Amino acid sequence: MSGWVVVAGLGPGDEALVTPEVRVALEQATDIVGYIPYVARIPERDGLTLHASDNRVELDRAAHALQMAQDGKRVVVVSSGDPGVFAMASALFEALEAGPAQWRALDIRVLPGITAMLAAAARAGAPLGHDFCAINLSDNLKPWALIEKRLRLAAEADFAMAFYNPRSKSRPEGFARALDVLREACADARPVLFARAVTTPQEELRIVPLTEALPEMADMRTVVIVGSSLTRVIDTPHGPILYTPRSA
Amino acid sequence: MSGWVVVAGLGPGDEALVTPEVRVALEQATDIVGYIPYVARIPERDGLTLHASDNRVELDRAAHALQMAQDGKRVVVVSSGDPGVFAMASALFEALEAGPAQWRALDIRVLPGITAMLAAAARAGAPLGHDFCAINLSDNLKPWALIEKRLRLAAEADFAMAFYNPRSKSRPEGFARALDVLREACADARPVLFARAVTTPQEELRIVPLTEALPEMADMRTVVIVGSSLTRVIDTPHGPILYTPRSA
């Protein structure tokens, strides 16, 4: 039996958002590799080995997956959301490029998933309904100056913006600085969505004006969406709807 | 029975990419509203009325959906991809905001789907694996000058870029201008992905250097992804893999 690697997106949390394509790959797998809370979503069964690992060991995990496939295993690397958006797909290809030449002959596929910003946007309305950008606010792997430069240029371009990894215990200050940069660059009270643990029982959504956004409204389970200058809020009896018009 | 409206994403084409959440909504619907080729994906059944309409009537279609929900129907507005990304969700909320006040009490939900750029990225590797932007290149609803400004700023920010609606019969020139702007702003041979009809039997993927990208490589079924300055190509026996490292 020849091995393969699939990098699969499990979506934001709700099992009803896992695509049938990903379900099939999970059923065919002999080994599941991933960050502890994502592997915890996979039911145990005979013939399946679960390999859960901690955060920040993405390259080791990727090399492990590739080596197991080389050894004939059918490996699914699980990501939350979409594996191609600030998740395991890039790490896997970094490991592939740096690894032994024979890995390049492996059967490797990426299966998309519902990424957090699109799930969050859907819950709130359609804040990413026109041109937008997605920025990882973690400065673990890139300098803070580059993040700040991108925030200023994104504001100048009048993109709606989605932020992943806005804030962690090890980086409590970055998001406060990001909000300061945005307030200076945008100079208005455009709406900001804080969407935490979207589609899970812990889901919390909050919409506030940029002028009132506070760093502590976000944690590592939060996606933050900042509107463009034209993003609107419609008040309804069920709560506010946030959307960006198609002409924005 | 009280009515509702769901705006649902059918994904890029492959039925295995339709989420179970969307399937349930389609099973519960009394009426399906959408652009002709998307409605054509919904099987007919007793108790279900299909309302297919042409392109460029998004606001009429949205108002029709809202009015049917007001009349007690269970209406699914179908989009390809994700409804919140250059699709029907924003049009629905534009119609809601402009429409009669009682529409605001309606039960309205947006169900996310796999958007074309993420399906295309997955097929090619992980070109959107770090900070990126998504731009609709159609100037039907916004001035061309704004598109060109965003292209220049996105290049300066060194975002990877995904382009929707790059080229149509009625707008043959815009994409040629976009490529000229990018060649000037980027001044390198970074890779460009042309991904046509992704996940369908007509799927075609092509990766070329920006210096060799031609307008006729895209049509309205194509998503175009331009790498950042750090996007890489790995040559493999199965073809090239395109990815953006996590440090980009």
Would you write up a description of this structure?
The structure is a homodimer of 248-residue chains. By secondary structure, the first copy, chain A, is an alpha/beta fold. Chain A contains seven helices and 13 strands. The first copy, chain A, has helices at residues 20-28, 36-39, 58-70, 88-98, 116-124, 144-156, 174-186, and strands spanning 4-9, 31-35, 49-53, 74-79, 107-111, 125-126, 132-136, 160-164, 191-196, 204-209, 222-226, 232-236, 239-243. Chain A has a five-stranded parallel β-sheet, with helices on both faces. In chain A, helix 2 (36-39) links the parallel strand 2 and strand 3. In chain A, helix 6 (144-156) runs parallel beside helix 7 (174-186). The longest helix of chain A is centred in the first third of the chain and has 13 residues, at 58-70. The first copy, chain A, is globular and about 60 Å long. The termini of chain A are far apart. The mean pLDDT of chain A is 96. Chains A and B meet through helix 1, helix 4, strand 5, helix 5 and strand 6 of A and helix 1, helix 4, strand 5, helix 5 and strand 6 of B. Strand 7 (132-136) of chain A pairs antiparallel with strand 7 (132-136) of chain B.
